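testing teh design pipeline on a random one, pls ignore if ur not involved
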C-alpha cells in the first residue's frame, strides 16, 4: 500500500507541476509496477528560478565634457602646460571625463583613472544628474560651497561638484607635488558654468 501511495503521489506531483508551470521538470520514471521512494526522489527534479529585481542604475547621456573646457583653461587652473583633453570613463559621476595631463603625470596616461598632475572635468546632463550628484555627495565629507549653480560642494580632497539645472559638473585639479586647492576648481567652474 505504501508503494502505491508513493506512486500516486509522484504522479500527482508531476501532473500538478506541469499543469501549473512551476518550473518543475520530471525525468523518465522507469515503468515498473512498483516505485521505491529513493527512485521517486531521484526521478523528480525541482528547480525554482529566483526572479532578481534589477536595481535601476542612473543613466547618463554621453555628454562630451571636452566641449566645455579648453586646454588653456585647464592649464591655467593647474598652473602649467597640459596635454589636449582626452575622454575617459568617469565612474563616480557616470559620464565621460575630459582629462588633461601636466608634464609630471605618470605615463601611460589612463583617462579612466584619476592621477596626480591632471585636470578632470566631467559634465553629466539629464534627468539623473541630481542622482549622480547626491550619490557622490553621500560618499564624501561634503563641504557646501556657495555661489556655483543651484548647489555645490567640495569633497574635501580635490574636487568641486556643482549642480546647475539638469547638469552635474565635477572638476578635479590635482597638481603634482602640491596639495589640491579649491581655488583651482572654482576658477574652472567660473569659466565652464556659463556654457551649461
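output:
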Amino acid at each position: 500500500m505504501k508503494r502505491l501511495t508513493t506512486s500516486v503521489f509522484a504522479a500527482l506531483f508531476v501532473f500538478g507541476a506541469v499543469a501549473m508551470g512551476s518550473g518543475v521538470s520530471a525525468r523518465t520514471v522507469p515503468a515498473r509496477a512498483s516505485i521505491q521512494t529513493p527512485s521517486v526522489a531521484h526521478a523528480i527534479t525541482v528547480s525554482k528560478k529566483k526572479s532578481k529585481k534589477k536595481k535601476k542604475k542612473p543613466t547618463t547621456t554621453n555628454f562630451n565634457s571636452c566641449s566645455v573646457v579648453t586646454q588653456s583653461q585647464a592649464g591655467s587652473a593647474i598652473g602649467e602646460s597640459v596635454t589636449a583633453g582626452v575622454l575617459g570613463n568617469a565612474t563616480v559621476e557616470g559620464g565621460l571625463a575630459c582629462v588633461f595631463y601636466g608634464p609630471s603625470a605618470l605615463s601611460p596616461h589612463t583617462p579612466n583613472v584619476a592621477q596626480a598632475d591632471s585636470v578632470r572635468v566631467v559634465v553629466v546632463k539629464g534627468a539623473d544628474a541630481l542622482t549622480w550628484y547626491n550619490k557622490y555627495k553621500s560618499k564624501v565629507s561634503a563641504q557646501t560651497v556657495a555661489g556655483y549653480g543651484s548647489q555645490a560642494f567640495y569633497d574635501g580632497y580635490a574636487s568641486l561638484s556643482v549642480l546647475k539645472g539638469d547638469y552635474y559638473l565635477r572638476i578635479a585639479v590635482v597638481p603634482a607635488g602640491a596639495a589640491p586647492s579649491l581655488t583651482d576648481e572654482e576658477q574652472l567652474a567660473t569659466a565652464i558654468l556659463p556654457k551649461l
